Amino acid sequence: MGRIKRRNFDNTELRAILRRRDANKFVSSVGRRNFRRDPPQAVLVFEDPVVYTVRQRVIDFISEHKIPTIGENPTWVREGSLLVYGVDYNWYWSRGAYFVDRILKGANPATLPVETPTRIGLYINLKTAKAFGLRIPDSMLATAEEVID
Question: Which of 31, 65, 106, 128 is the most exposed place for a label (fewest CB within 10 A)?
């Protein structure tokens, strides 16, 4: 699986798991080496093509062990992860289509502005929170872009 780096910050341990390129080995290694013997209190998942391809296996595993997971792609929340703070990819990709349309209509690509994502939101899976015995504060629910019941 690669190396596991450990760092401690004010009584909070941070473990960075360096993934492999093979998605199946990634999932089996995570389950075998780390979570079963020394489960984390929470998992932060960064968007990555390898991890994304096995997201349902990861979500199933963390759900089975009731490990809250936070990510950056709303798809994860819709499939069972606890919460996401990130870009609305549907909006993001529609902006790409907008630029393709402009270019096909004759716009010079060099004159089109560079955009960065501006629609970033909080997505919460309340069903997962309840299954894990967690209470999500009302203030978070009120500011969420989407809440899955």
Answer: 106
Extract long-range pairs of 135-140: CB within 8 Å, 24+ residues apart.
Answer: 136/83
Q: What is the dihedral of CA 76, 38, 25, 3, to 10 degrees?
A: 110
User: Can you read off the two tokens belonging to residue 138?
Assistant: 């009302």
Cβ neighbourhood burial of 89 (10 Å; 0-12, 13-18, 19+): middle
Question: Which domains are assigned to the chain?
Answer: 4-148 (3.40.50)
Q: Residue type at 147?
A: V
Alpha carbon 27 to chain centroid, angstroms: 15
Backbone Cα Rg of the chain = 18
| Residue-wise pLDDT tens digits, 26-80 | 566 555 555 666 777 788 887 777 778 888 888 887 888 888 888 888 888 998 9
Count helices and strands in the chain by DSSP H and E runs:
7, 7
